[in-house]
Amino acid sequence: MFLGIGQMTTTILILYVAKMNQTVHFQDFDRSILIKIFPLPLLYVGNHITGLASTKKLSLPMFTVLRKFTILMTMIMEARLLRKTFPNRLIYSVLAIVFGALVAASSDLAFDAEAYTFILLNDVFTAASGVYTKKKLGTEGLGKYGILFYNAFIIVIPTLLASAFTGDLHKAITYEHWLNALFVSCFLMSCIMGFVLMYSIVLCSHYNSALTTTVVGAIKNVAVAYIGMFLGGDYLFSWTNFLGLNICISGGLVYSYLTFHSTSSKPSQSDESRIQGNQDQLIIPIDRLPVK
Questions:
Q1: CA 47/CA 35 separation, integer angstroms
Q2: Distances from the Cα of 111 to the Cα of 53, 116, 258, 291, angstroms
């Protein structure tokens, strides 16, 4: 939780300085901000806390596998909240990703009920956060930077109080390695990369659907799974788990191909305008033709 507070504080400082330098622009704070951005701050802190808790308790490969359920949840929420429809081929590729996750998780020899609860809650928060972020990006006055800034700004104090209440803050402050340069460097880097990650997610959601953002993130996470097999030290290898991981990546690649192939096959707005312009030029009023 303290690491989450560090990431929120870093987000606030970076965007505030950027706003003061007029590098980025978003609405100044007033009471309307709370209405515009709700419920994103609640989803934001829920995503942070459950994500960090599940990362701590699960091996990296299993964390990556169980995160795949976010994709299915995102698809369902987009259909319900944003009224989106998906072609059958995309649905089948998503189901393949989820099926691969089930296959991989079925061989988990380090099952931890508390860890699985945290990761599934994290899936719910991530899916809801992605869908609502896409919905709020069109809100006047917020934009990409406003969503990031006010998410962190509104929730950092309540999270700090919760951290103090649970004893997490005391444990963090009294941690013995605060004078260790390597630890401090890693902590600060994690705070900065937390901001980079959140900005990347919002930016991707701005240009794509929430589902595409989730799937692209899942494909990226497969690299974490493969690296974790060799560097993490906590991965228990089994052929079933390895097969499930490969099914996941296959489904993700198929989804990516179908999504971006269909996007590239559609005419762009400029192409449509040029085609329309050519069509307009071909229309010749009959009553204006010269009569011999």
A1: 20
A2: 15, 8, 35, 88
On the CB side of 229, CA atoms within 13 Å amount to 12
Sequence length of the chain is 292
pLDDT of res. 130: 84
The radius of gyration of the chain from alpha carbons, rounded to an integer in Å, stands at 23
Tell me which residue of 280, 262, 273, 40 sits closest to 146, measured CA to CA.
Answer: 40
The pLDDT value recorded for residue 245 is 77
* Distances, alpha carbon 156 to alpha carbons 3, 9, 41, 139, 153, in Å: 11, 7, 9, 22, 6
Six-digit token pair at 245? 């991981």
| DSSP state for residue 290 in the 8-state scheme | -
CB 134 within 8 A of CB 204: no
- pLDDT tens-digit map of 68-108: 788 888 888 888 888 888 888 888 888 888 888 778 777 66
3-class DSSP state of 75 = helix
Tell me the C-alpha distance between 157 and 153, whole Å. 8
- Region of 268 (left: φ > 0; alpha: ψ -120 to 50; beta: rest) is beta
CB 107 within 8 A of CB 245: no
3-state class (DSSP) for residue 8: helix
Judge contact between 202 and 148, C-beta under 8 A.
yes
Q: Which helix (H) or strand (E) holds 228?
A: helix 210-231
d(CA 216, CA 50) in angstroms, rounded, equals: 21
